[in-house]
Amino acid sequence: MKRVLIVDDDTDILGLLRLEFEDEAGCRADTTDDVRAALDLARSHTYNLIITDWRMPGMNGTEFVAALRRQGCTSPIVIYSGKECDEDIRTALKAGADKYIGRRGSPEQEFPELKGLLVDMGGRT
Predict the structure, then answer these.
(1) CA distance 105 to 77
(2) What per-residue confidence (pLDDT) applies to 98?
(3) Are 80 and 65 contacting, i.e. CB atoms less than 8 angstroms apart?
(4) pLDDT tens digit string along 96-108?
(5) Which of 2, 43, 66, 125 has its CA 20 to 30 A from that of 28?
(6) Using CA atoms, how far apart are residues 114 and 19, in angstroms rounded to an integer?
(7) What distance lies between CA 107 and its chain's CA centroid?
(8) Which residue segments constitute the domains of the chain, with CATH numbers given?
(9) Degrees, nearest 5: CA angle 32-35-89
(10) Is 56:88 a contact under the CB 8 Å cutoff?
(11) What residues contact residue 43 under an 8 Å CB cut-off, 6+ apart?
C-alpha cells in the first residue's frame, strides 16, 4: 500500500487531496494542518510521498523540509503552494524538497500532477 502525508493549514485542501489520493486503490493519505504533528507522523511512518504547503503557522515550508531531512526522512517531498517568490522556492529545494508545484487555482489540473508524482517518485523510499 502506498502512503502519502499531506500537510496544509487549509483544511479544504487537506480534505480534497485526501479524497483524491484515497480514490486510488491501495493508497492511504494521512493529513494534518499542524507541522509538529507532521514531523511526528514522518518519524513514525514511512511515506512514499509528502506534500506540503509553504505558508503554515509555526514553520514555513523550507523550515519544515529541513526539519524532515534532519530527522532522517528520505521520502520525496513536494511543496504545493501558491507562494511564488523564486528565492523562497530555491531555498526550499536546497533544504531538501524534491519539487515545487504552484497552486494556480486549477485543482483539476494540479491534483492529477500530484498523483502522478506518487507513481514517479513514490518508489524511492
Answers:
(1) 21
(2) 93
(3) no
(4) 999 988 887 767 7
(5) 66
(6) 13
(7) 15
(8) 2-124 (3.40.50.2300)
(9) 110
(10) no
(11) 71, 73
In this prediction the pTM is: 0.90
Looking up cell 491501495 gives 26
Question: Cell for 118?
Answer: 506518487
Distance CA 113, CA 101 (A): 9
Grid coordinates belonging to 39: 514531523
C-alpha cell at 25: 486503490
Mean pLDDT of 69-94: 87
Residue with cell 500530484: 114
Q: Residue 125: what pLDDT?
A: 43
